[in-house]
C-alpha cells in the first residue's frame, strides 16, 4: 500500500520515466522508494552511501538523475551536493510518510494511476554503478526482465529457509536480489540490520533462517569463534567435539544442534543457511561452518548478470567450487575467460557505447574472470583476467591462487600479489603488531608454500604494510 501511494504521488509530480536516485543506509523507506520508483515506469539508481559529495555529484550528472531521495544521516553531504547540482530535486526518506499521505489523497480523487503504467520485461528498471576494484564505476543497465529471470533462476537452484536478516548494502545487486527480491518472492519476513555494530543483538532478536553476506564477514566471524574459544581455554574441547560430531555423522547421527548450541545461539539459534557472494570463499571456512551445523552456499555473480550466475545447490554441492550454473543461463570459455549468455544479462552500460561494444558480443557478456567447469557441472574461478601475472618466460600466474595460499598463514589478514620487474611479490597486512619474530614466522611459512609450487609460481619477495588495504563498499581490496 505504501509503495502504491508513493508511486501515485510521484506520478502526480510528473516523475514517470525519470531517473531517480536513492542514497542512504538500509531502511524500510529505502525499499519502499525503490519499488515505488520502478512501479511507475521510472528508473531507480541506488547510490553507495559511502560516496563523497563530489563522487555522488559526478554520478548524478552522468546518469541524468532528476530526483534524489536521501537519508538525513548524510545531510552534510547532500548540502554540498545541492551546491554542485542546484537543479536536482531532493526528498528526505524520513518524510516518506507525508508523501504517502499525499498519494492516498490523490488515489481517493483520481484512482490508482499506476494501473495505467505499462512495463515490459525490456523496460529499464535500474542503473547500478559497480564499485569496481580497478577503475571508475560503470552504470550497468538492468531491465525488469533481467532481474525477474535471475530471481526465478536462483530459487530453482537453492531452497531458502524461512525469514532473513538483511546485512548487505541494498545498492549492491547481490544484497538486493537475495535479501529483498528472493525473500519477497518466497513470502518471508525481512529484518533490517542498519548497523554492523548491532549484528549479534539483531540476530538474537530476529532469529533468521537465512542470511546473505560476503566472505570477509564470514571469515571474521569464524576466526572470532576460535579466538574466543582460545581465550576461554576451551579450544581443545571444541576440537574434540568437532571430531566426535564428524564420527557420529558417518553413522547418520547428527548432534550438532546440541554440541554447538552456544555457537548457533550467537546467530539467533535458527540459522540454517548462509549465502555468500562477492569473492571466492576459502573451502576450509565452508567446512568449518558445516561442522558447526551451519551450511554455507557460495556462489558466483557479477552486476552485469543481475547478478547471480551460479550457486551451490541445497544438497548437491562442492565447497571447492562456486556451485553450478543456474537454469537458463549459458556459460562458455574463451581463452579461459568466462562468457555468459541468458535473459539475466544486461543490455550494456549507460552512456558508454564503446565499453558496451568491448564486453558484450552477440548476446554474450565477457566477465573478465578466468574459470573452468568440471564433469559434474561445478564452476571454478581461477582469478581475474586483469590480475593475471605474465612472466617473461611466457608463464601466466593467477594472483588470486597465490593470495588464497598466503591467507592460510595465520598471521596474514590481507594480501595482494603482483608482478614487479618479472618477479612475484606479495604485499601483506598482518592481524597483529609487526615484529622481527613475526616476520621470520611468516617468511618460514612462505618457504613451505613455495616448496609445493612450481618454481615459476614462487613468491620471491614479501612486503609488510602497516595499514589495511583500501577497500570498496563491497569490502573488496582496491588492487590498483
Essential attributes:
5-stranded mixed β-sheet, 16 helices, alpha/beta, single chain
Kindly describe this structure:
The structure is a single chain. With 480 residues, the protein is an alpha/beta fold. The chain is 37% helix and 24% strand. The strands form 7 sheets. The chain has a 5-stranded mixed sheet. Strands 14, 15, 17, 18 and 19 form a 5-stranded antiparallel sheet that branches. A 4-stranded parallel sheet has the order 2-1-3-4, with helices on one face. Helix 3 (53-62) crosses helix 4 (75-84) and helix 6 packs across helix 7 (173-186). It is globular and about 75 Å long.
Short description:
The chain has about 475 residues and is of the alpha/beta class.
Task: Describe the protein's topology.
Layout: H1 2-12, E1 19-23, H2 28-39, E2 43-47, H3 53-62, E3 67-70, H4 75-84, E4 89-92, H5 96-110, E5 124-129, E6 139-143, H6 144-157, E7 164-166, H7 173-186, E8 190-192, H8 199-206, E9 210-213, H9 215-231, H10 235-250, H11 256-259, H12 261-265, E10 273-276, H13 283-292, E11 296-301, E12 308-311, E13 324-325, E14 330-334, E15 337-341, E16 348-349, H14 353-359, E17 360-361, E18 364-373, E19 379-384, E20 388-390, E21 396-398, H15 399-406, E22 412-420, E23 423-430, H16 436-451, E24 461-465
Helix pairs in contact: 1-2, 1-5, 3-4, 6-7
Amino acid at each position: 500500500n505504501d509503495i502504491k501511494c508513493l508511486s501515485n504521488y510521484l506520478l502526480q509530480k510528473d516523475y514517470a520515466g525519470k531517473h531517480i536516485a536513492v542514497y542512504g543506509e538500509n531502511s524500510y523507506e529505502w525499499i519502499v522508494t525503490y519499488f515505488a520508483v520502478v512501479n511507475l515506469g521510472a528508473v531507480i539508481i541506488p547510490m553507495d552511501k559511502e560516496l563523497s559529495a563530489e563522487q555522488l555529484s559526478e554520478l548524478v550528472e552522468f546518469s541524468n538523475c532528476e530526483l534524489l531521495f536521501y537519508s538525513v544521516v548524510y545531510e552534510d553531504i547532500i548540502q554540498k551536493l545541492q551546491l554542485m547540482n542546484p537543479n536536482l530535486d531532493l526528498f528526505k526518506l524520513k518524510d516518506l510518510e507525508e508523501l504517502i499521505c499525499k498519494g492516498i489523497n490523490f488515489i481517493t480523487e483520481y484512482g490508482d494511476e499506476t494501473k495505467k503504467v505499462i512495463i515490459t520485461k525490456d523496460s529499464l528498471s535500474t542503473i547500478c554503478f559497480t564499485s569496481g576494484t580497478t577503475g571508475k564505476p560503470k552504470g550497468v543497465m538492468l531491465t525488469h526482465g533481467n532481474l525477474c529471470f535471475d530471481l526465478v533462476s536462483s530459487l530453482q537452484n537453492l531452497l531458502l529457509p524461512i525469514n532473513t536478516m538483511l546485512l548487505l548494502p541494498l545498492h549492491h545487486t547481490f544484497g538486493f536480489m537475495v535479501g529483498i527480491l528472493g525473500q519477497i518472492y518466497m513470502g518471508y519476513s525481512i529484518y533490517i540490520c542498519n548497523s554492523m555494530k548491532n549484528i549479534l543483538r539483531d540476530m538474537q532478536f530476529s532469529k533468521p533462517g537465512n542470511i546473505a553476506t560476503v566472505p570477509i564477514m564470514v571469515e571474521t566471524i569464524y576466526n572470532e569463534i576460535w579466538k574466543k574459544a582460545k581465550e576461554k581455554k576451551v579450544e581443545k574441547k571444541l576440537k574434540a567435539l568437532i571430531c566426535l560430531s564428524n564420527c557420529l555423522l558417518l553413522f547418520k547421527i547428527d548432534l550438532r544442534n546440541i554440541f554447538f548450541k552456544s555457537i548457533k545461539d550467537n546467530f539467533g539459534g535458527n540459522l540454517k543457511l548462509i549465502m555468500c557472494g562477492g569473492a571466492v570463499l576459502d573451502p576450509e571456512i565452508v567446512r568449518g561452518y558445516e561442522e558447526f551445523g551451519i551450511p554455507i552456499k557460495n556462489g558466483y555473480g557479477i552486476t552485469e548478470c543481475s547478478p547471480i550466475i551460479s550457486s551451490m545447490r541445497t544438497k548437491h554441492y562442492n565447497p571447492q567450487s562456486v556451485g553450478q550454473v543456474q537454469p537458463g543461463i549459458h556459460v562458455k570459455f574463451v581463452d579461459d575467460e568466462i562468457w555468459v549468455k541468458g535473459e539475466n544479462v544486461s543490455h550494456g552500460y549507460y552512456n558508454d557505447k564503446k565499453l558496451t561494444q568491448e564486453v558484450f558480443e552477440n548476446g554474450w557478456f565477457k566477465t573478465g574472470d578466468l574459470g573452468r567447469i568440471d564433469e559434474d557441472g561445478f564452476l571454478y574461478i581461477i582469478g581475474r583476467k586483469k590480475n593475471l601475472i605474465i612472466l617473461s618466460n611466457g608463464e601466466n600466474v593467477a594472483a588470486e591462487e597465490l593470495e588464497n595460499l598466503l591467507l592460510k598463514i595465520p598471521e596474514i589478514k590481507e594480501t595482494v600479489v603482483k608482478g614487479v620487474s618479472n618477479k612475484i611479490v606479495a604485499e601483506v597486512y598482518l592481524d597483529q603488531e609487526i615484529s622481527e619474530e613475526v616476520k621470520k614466522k611468516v617468511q618460514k611459512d612462505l618457504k613451505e608454500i613455495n616448496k609445493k609450487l612450481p618454481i615459476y609460481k614462487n613468491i620471491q619477495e614479501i612486503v609488510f604494510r602497516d595499514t589495511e588495504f583500501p577497500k570498496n563498499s563491497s569490502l573488496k581490496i582496491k588492487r590498483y
